[in-house]
Structures are given as structure tokens and as C-alpha cells.
Amino acid sequence: xxxxxxxxxxxxxxxxxxxxxxxxxxxxxxxxxxxxxxxxxxxxxxxxxxxxxxxxxxxxxxxxxxxxxxxxxxxxxxxxxxxxxxxxxxxxxxxxxxxxxxxxxxxxxxxxxxxxxxxxxxxxxxxxxxxxxxxxxxxxxxxxxxxxxx
Length: 150
Description:
The chain is of the alpha/beta class. It has one domain: 3-Layer(aba) Sandwich (Rossmann fold), CATH 3.40.50.410. Helices cover 33% and strands 25% of the residues. The chain contains four helices and six strands. The protein is globular, with a radius of gyration of 14 Å.
């Protein structure tokens, strides 16, 4: 999972909604006994929030410690995800899914990146006038698009 932790997610409680989404996905992964890795991207850097281990029963306390700040290094996190997926594919991992949870507020060009895994972009944008960047990013990545409703 790739979780947008940039400053723009502080608006209209996007960060809380995104974290709730992570909790829902991690709960399903836990019930399916799947491995889960979470990378946060914000403040011009990528940080590992959860190492690639079997999904824990509870992540809320861990997510509450995640700092939200700065710019959106979208390209950087996608390049890191691309590398992780390539390693998993080389190791014959069964199924790899990638969830990109973001408000889409990034100017990064990502059309040349392919993650090599089934990808879902979960758009947390919650403004009256939509910019539509989430849909554009999903198209560029060949990802499924899902708008997270409030």
C-alpha cells in the first residue's frame, strides 16, 4: 500500500479518511492471511510504515503515529513500489496488488512507470471542484480507479 502523507491530505480530514481506508484493506489482508507492506510518501520522502509481513490484526496505533507534512513525492514512491514488485515477481510471489491512496495533488509525470502488479488508485480528493488528477494518474499507471466517498 502506498499512503499519501503529504500536507495536502490535512485538508477536510483526508488523512483520517485515507487511514480508515488503509485499516479496511489491512483487515481484509489479515483475514486472508496475506502479507502487507505500507509505504508513506510525503514531506519529499518515502518512509516505510509497515514492513512486508503478515498483515497485523490492528494497525490503528501505528497509523496514528504517521506524520503528515510537506510535498508529494509521487514519482519517488512509485519507483520504489516498482522495485519492490519486481523483486516479488522474481521470487515468484503468488499475487501482488498495489493500492495507491492519494488526493492526486502532485505534478509528477508517471506515464512512463508501470508497477507490474494489479494496481488500484483510491482517490481521497474531497473538494467541490475536482481537479481530476487521481483519474489521470490511474490512467497513466494502467490502474483501476476508485473515488473514496466521504
